[in-house]
Amino acid sequence: HPQWAYKRVAGTGQVKHNDIVVFNFPAGDTVALNYQQTDFYSLAYGEGKRVYSHAINMDSLTREQQQIVFDLYYNAGRKQILSNLKEYGKVVHRPVDRRENYVKRCIGLPGDTLQIIQRAIYLNGLKQDDPENLQFFYRVQATGKPITQEFFRELGLSNEDTQSYQAGDVEFYLPLTKKAHDALLGRKDLVTAISVIELGNDGLYPPNLHTNWTV
Question: Gene3D superfamilies recorded for this chain (predicted)?
Fold first, then answer.
């Protein structure tokens, strides 16, 4: 099949604060075909931690010592994946047009100082206004009374958003806007408490450093 070489075209403008931007997910260049929803690097670190399942207190290690541990995880996970092609599938490098497109809002530019403190964004020391439909991930404690899909739709939730819920559950997890949070909390017949989930360090960049960051 005829192919054109990839060529980067010069931009036609300058990205500004709060512009919508589209880009390829950087770590999505390599995947195991049976686990395409997870980039190869995250998969390798995760599998390596399963191989070396003994808990390590990362807070007691220097950054250099942490790097040694994470290299151990990565190499063990990589070996596990490459030696089990039946389970993981062939590991392939994806061309640019086969990588995930991420659509995000630009909130920081080169030279800016960006902080996320207690789920609020601070740019150059100034707290930024939250977007109207900003969502956080919550743990919902329920009464066990079934919640209908119709009610979930009223909250603006999709089937994917509610996949952790089964009728009769007394605890499950949902992404909620402030409006949806307040509406659900107001249904005392359905829920008893809603608390925000503090996501830990493991899913945050960089994957080979213990930062104690949360979002």
Answer: Umud Fragment, subunit A
Q: What are the start-end ranges of the E strands in the chain?
A: 20-24, 30-32, 91-93, 101-105, 114-117, 120-123, 126-127, 135-142, 171-177, 191-196
Cβ within 8 Å of residue 51, ≥6 positions away: 73, 76, 77, 80
What secondary structure does DSSP assign to 128-182, as a single string?
PPPPTT-EEEEEEEE-S----HHHHHHTT--TTTTTT--TT-SEEEEEEEHHHHH
- What is the C-alpha radius of gyration for the chain, rounded to an integer number of angstroms? 21
Domains of the chain: 22-103 (no CATH), 135-196 (3.30.70)
Residue entry with tokens 């980067």: 8
Q: Judge whether 191 and 135 are in contact, CB under 8 Å.
A: no
Q: Which residues of the chain have pLDDT under 50?
A: none
Specify whether the CB–CB gap between 206 and 70 falls below 8 A. Answer: no
State residue 118's pLDDT score. 84
Alpha-carbon distance of 170 to 150, in angstroms, equals: 19
Burial class (CB in 10 A: 0-12, 13-18, 19+), 174: buried
Residue 174 backbone phi and psi in degrees, to 5? -140, 145
| Alpha carbons 38 and 104: distance in angstroms, whole number | 19
pLDDT of residue 96: 79
Q: Would you give the DSSP letter of residue 98?
A: G
Residue that the structure tokens 């939730």 belong to = 157
Evaluate if pTM is beyond 0.85: no
